[in-house]
Design brief:
29% helix, mainly alpha
Length: 66
């Protein structure tokens, strides 16, 4: 079997560092799922079709506070 890997690229710059505004977007989409208006697959790090605590934790671990 093959496994997909999302590099958690939520912004379009060359780095994969999450900014404060990116983190705010993930928090806003928290609790959404596939088919919901505010669901964004780019924010779904673990591909479970919902934005949950695992996705927020991943974003928090990669946030750039500068």
């Amino acid at each position: 079997s093959s496994m997909q890997f999302n590099t958690f690229k939520i912004n379009d710059d060359a780095t994969n560092i999450v900014t404060k505004s990116d983190f705010a977007s993930i928090k806003k989409a928290f609790g959404s799922g596939l088919g919901w208006g505010n669901y964004d697959q780019r924010m779904d790090y673990n591909f479970d079709y919902k934005i949950d605590i695992a996705d927020i934790t991943t974003a928090a671990a990669n946030v750039n506070l500068q």
